[in-house]
Write a structure and sequence with these properties.
- The chain is of the alpha+beta class.
- It has one domain.
- The protein is 25% helix and 18% strand.
- It has nine helices and eleven strands.
- Strands 3, 4, 5, 6, 7, 8 and 9 form a seven-stranded mixed sheet that branches. A two-stranded antiparallel ribbon has the order 1-2.
- Helix 3 (70-86) crosses helix 4.
- The protein starts with a strand and ends with a strand.
């Protein structure tokens, strides 16, 4: 009898029967295995939720792709550099304004040897009243008036000289920058710094505001605009200049001030008209801080040795006690005098108490 018989009646060999018995005991390599408990659990959930797979044990959610900003920045910088190279003037005008954060010119410590370079012709606006003017790069108000380091002079110690220099600048502020004075008010603070015993100057002050004349004109010392005619544009007056000092007569401290003031103004009743005129005044004052033991004076006051000023766009004709900026057709009528550059500070001030060319025409403003 054979070791085994197939369904078709054929018999197995002894070797085949022996191998069959051995695999039955050990288990065949491809025999099905009992599912694990986890596998049964997964299969059960799959049947319950056929559209949702189980959450992976080591799942990873990829982050959103980061935007590629690097090449965009490089491209923008390259474009800006190209614009600067092709049109430097345009880029300067784009990023620089009248009162921008760019630093002003360095302080003036000596008389300049060159005039400011010409600016591109640009019309001033209510927001940028110094546009197209060298004054756009000047400091504002008292910051544009350089005060030198103090040292002992004559009858004064270094500390006293420092105090007198500060008060000299206070006079320039009170006479040329005070908002009330610029609107036509009487310059009381400035007058309080002048020696009340100086008869000629006190005579000028007594009559100048009541009956202005060529000899007694408040504009010789003070900057004033008639409120019914003109008003300042904005809150800034540009200045550039300096104080110097030396020993004067009888050991006095003699201070010389040379300062240019730039006042942007418009019509008081401008309405929709935004025509802006810049009145430019350069003043030279020589002040004497006298020794009270030798000169009759009062503490904290000075005597005026001399005063001069140059002015453009401030009006012509009989003195009124105010600057009268020309607008419209009046401006064209004023432009008949000698041409001067009001920003040229290389030469001394040419106008003073004596009569001069009152209708000098500014080559720029």
């Amino acid at each position: 009898m054979g070791a085994g018989t197939e369904s078709d009646g054929s018999s197995r060999s002894d070797e085949e029967w022996e191998r069959f018995l051995r695999e039955s005991v050990a288990g065949a390599a491809d025999a099905p295995k009992e599912p694990s408990a986890r596998a049964r659990d997964v299969a059960k959930r799959l049947r319950a939720e056929p559209d949702r797979g189980p959450e992976g044990w080591r799942s990873y959610t990829p982050a959103r792709p980061k935007r590629r900003t690097g090449w965009y920045v490089v491209g923008l910088l390259a474009a800006l550099l190209l614009v600067v190279a092709l049109a430097p003037g345009w880029t300067v005008g784009l990023f620089a304004g009248d009162d921008s954060d760019s630093p002003p010119l360095g302080a003036e410590t000596a008389r300049p040897t060159d005039v400011p370079p010409a600016e591109a012709a640009q019309r001033p606006t209510m927001d940028e009243p110094f546009r197209g003017s060298p004054a756009a790069d000047w400091a504002s108000g008292a910051a544009g008036i350089t005060v030198p380091k103090a040292r002992a002079v004559g009858w004064m110690s270094a500390a006293e000289v420092e105090r007198s220099l500060a008060r000299s600048r206070d006079f320039l502020v009170a006479s040329g920058l005070d908002r009330g004075v610029l609107r036509g008010e009487r310059p009381e603070k400035a007058i309080a710094l002048i020696n009340p015993h100086q008869r000629d100057v006190q005579g000028l002050l007594k009559t100048a505001f009541r009956a202005p004349s060529e000899k007694n004109d408040p504009l010789l010392l003070f900057s004033r605009f008639q409120p019914s005619r003109a008003q300042l544009v904005g809150d800034i007056v540009k200045t550039r200049g300096r104080l110097t000092y030396r020993e004067g007569e009888r050991g006095a401290l003699q201070v010389t001030a040379d300062v240019t003031f730039v006042y942007p103004v418009t019509r008081a009743d401008a309405g929709g008209d935004d025509e802006i005129v810049r009145t430019i005044v350069r003043r030279e004052l020589v002040l004497s801080w006298d020794n009270p033991a030798k000169v009759i004076t009062e503490p904290g006051t000075f005597s005026i040795v001399s005063y001069k000023y140059d002015m453009t766009n401030g009006g012509c004709g009989a003195p009124t006690g105010y600057f009268t900026p020309p607008f419209g057709s009046d401006r064209r009528a004023d432009e008949t005098g000698t041409e001067v550059d009001p920003y040229d500070r290389t030469a001394p001030v040419g106008r003073g108490e004596s009569s001069g060319d009152e209708c000098a025409r500014a080559t720029r403003s």
